[in-house]
Amino acid sequence: xxxxxxxxxxxxxxxxxxxxxxxxxxxxxxxxxxxxxxxxxxxxxxxxxxxxxxxxxxxxxxxxxxxxxxxxxxxxxxxxxxxxxxxxxxxxxxxxxxxxxxxxxxxxxxxxxxxxxxxxxxxxxxxxxxxxxxxxxxxxxxxxxxxxxxxxxxxxxxxxxxxxxxxxxxxxxxxxxxxxxxxxxxxxxxxxxxxxxxxxxxxxxxxxxxxxxxxxxxxxxxxxxxxxxxxxxxxxxxxxxxxxxxxxxxxxxxxxxxxxxxxxxxxxxxxxxxxxxxxxxxxxxxxxxxxxxxxxxxxxxxxxxxxxxxxxxxxxxxxxxxxxxxxxxxxxxxxxxxxxxxxxxxxxxxxxxxxxxxxxxxxxxxxxxxxxxxxxxxxxxxxxxxxxxxxxxxxxxxxxxxxxxxxxxxxxxxxxxxxxxxxxxxxxxxxxxxxxxxxxxxxxxxxxxxxxxxxxxxxxxxxxxxxxxxxxxxxxxxxxxxxxxxxxxxxxxxxxxxxxxxxxxxxxxxxxxxxxxxxxxxxxxxxxxxxxxxxxx
Length: 537
What we know:
By secondary structure, the protein is mainly alpha-helical. It contains 24 helices and 12 strands. Helix 8 (about 165-175) runs antiparallel to helix 11 (about 260-275), helix 17 (about 390-400) crosses helix 19 and helix 21 (about 475-485) crosses helix 23 (about 515-520).
């Protein structure tokens, strides 16, 4: 594949990252003026620790970034991970120490509150470090920008002056969207009290926009005139978002549907400032298995750490990839299929025509870290010798006492070089399967007794296995199992009923793997013992 072929295919791709990239390319038909990089941004509020929402937003933005680079033949780009650490602390998080100390500092900028963990300069510095560690863990290519640094250093001063110049026009946009009570105290500019150090929600009068001077009444009733520059004020959220787009020259930022109205108002404000609203995608939110919105305070849904206990990073990315405009349920039950579907798509990638590759989630995931030239996709065509579903069935049959070495001993029946060092990604999934079985699958397994007709079919299966030689293949076994299921004497309406009977009587679950593969992995004599146990029931 040449770069020109990739560009042509990217122009016609219907995959959502390329649809987004095509919109972004129309923003700059001749390329960004002066050859400047196109700026992608993701935002983060460091009042809490990073979570799955942070991951998906950076990952999806990276998908669009790489698609744009492919579409434009490698046009320069940057990804800014922005932390709004000048925001005032509104409430004390439940999952941090030193709650009383944080309560005493409510309202102060996060970057000016002591670190409750006692490790960093401030609470924001702690959470920013966690964010960067989090993003680095997944290999994201990004530039970290802290709001506090930009405000305090004066880097935002010119943009702040522009906000002060347009203050009344901004109020004309915002006030009609607010309740009457909120209108009375609303201000685009939030001064930092020189007395308490808190970010104040009070009406502000602009005295001199060019000098940055504002006038307000402090918490103690004193009338204050001070500069809004150099970190002595910050902007109200929607105004701050627009100012950031303007100051940083952001070209693309996606956000959740809960911020739809904010996006509309911030888009109007950035144009008032003389900038242009970024392109972007409004995505749906994650739901738990009951269909309820995932909430950090409720603790429902699934965390990144929990997913990575039972599945791989790539499988999480794969699950996140499809249609961002549709809500997704995030719970342990979706992990096994996501793992196997990812590997199915990754294995197929190398043999697909280019237009199909660009719609394959594995193409985007394998390129997310920026490795390889524009026309290369490292890792395409790789495969796993054993599916995750098959591993789970093996571990389930082995029981709760199964361990890593025991599983690899059985894998030796199926693959010729059954050594974790030769199969690092399979080794990871063996550990994940053991954890998943321990925490979820084992409690749902129940082997029922076969019916009389099912018992007759199982005896036929046992006789077939007894006659098999040691070198029989998984495919040969599968064919023989099909023939037993199709035999009229056993009365199965279809093969699905036969396989369901095998899963429920031998494995204890309603669903299962290709039985030929399972028997080849578990071993003929071991499988015959399972049959004997089922017949005894």
